[in-house]
Write a structure and sequence with these properties.
By secondary structure, the chain is α+β, with helices and mostly antiparallel strands. It contains six helices and ten strands. Helix 1 packs parallel to helix 5. It is globular, with a radius of gyration of 19 Å.
């Protein structure tokens, strides 16, 4: 029986050897390409091992992610994705008896929303100079190797591979030992590297770090 499209998608066959925090970060990096992710639920209990829920703000984003990432080799295991049965399945399945606490949490979240929008305002104001600075970043001549900087501390090879291996011609990610904020990504041709560069320019692996991508120096 088909489950109706839903803002929440349910994933199973997730590699359960991955630490919970790393798993959530990697899921966020992967799924937020399709739209705003509101919440990711992944738990290590026996009942919930190898499963996760991703809640999107927009229904279209959930649908797109489900189609594009079905069978995606996440930590070497193909993900099985479907819509959650109901919006409340996350709460019902994961939190079980904690339904009442969840409602209070929701109220708290709503109360905090205006505060978060206030926090965002200065960022929006300062976005203009940041953007013009990005435009002025001198790029090198086209190259099949991309140079990434402004990466967050928790970046790992797996996260970057998941972002870039959607693009044709992807070969490998090379991290720089001792420097978490830079990395190189190699493609088969400079044209293929250029497509990935344009698509992921400014992509945020975390809320605060917008990735900067240029062609590597030859």
């Amino acid at each position: 029986m088909d489950i109706r499209p839903n803002h929440t998608i349910y994933i199973n066959n997730v590699n359960d050897k991955v630490k919970k925090e790393e798993l959530k970060r990697s899921l966020y990096a992967l799924f937020s390409q399709f739209g705003q992710v509101i919440e990711i639920v992944a738990m290590k209990t026996m009942k919930m091992r190898g499963q996760a829920f991703v809640v999107f703000k927009e229904l279209a984003a959930a649908t797109n992610a489900l189609r594009q990432l079905q069978g995606f080799p996440f930590y070497n295991k193909p993900m099985r994705i479907q819509y959650a049965k109901t919006d409340s399945e996350v709460i019902a399945k994961v939190k079980g008896t904690y339904g009442d606490k969840e409602k209070k949490k929701d109220k708290k979240k709503k109360a905090q929303e205006p505060a978060t929008s206030l926090i965002k305002k200065p960022a929006a104001g300062s976005a203009a100079p940041v953007h013009s600075a990005a435009v002025q970043v001198p790029d090198n001549p086209p190259n099949y190797i991309l140079f990434l900087n402004n990466l967050p501390e928790e970046t790992n090879e797996m996260m970057l591979s998941m972002l870039f291996n959607q693009f044709p011609g992807f070969k490998e990610v090379r991290l720089v030992p001792g420097k978490h904020d830079i990395s190189f990504v190699e493609f088969e041709s400079d044209t293929q590297a250029g497509v990935a560069k344009d698509a992921l320019q400014g992509f945020r692996i975390t809320a605060t770090c917008a990735m900067k991508i240029t062609y590597a120096k030859k």
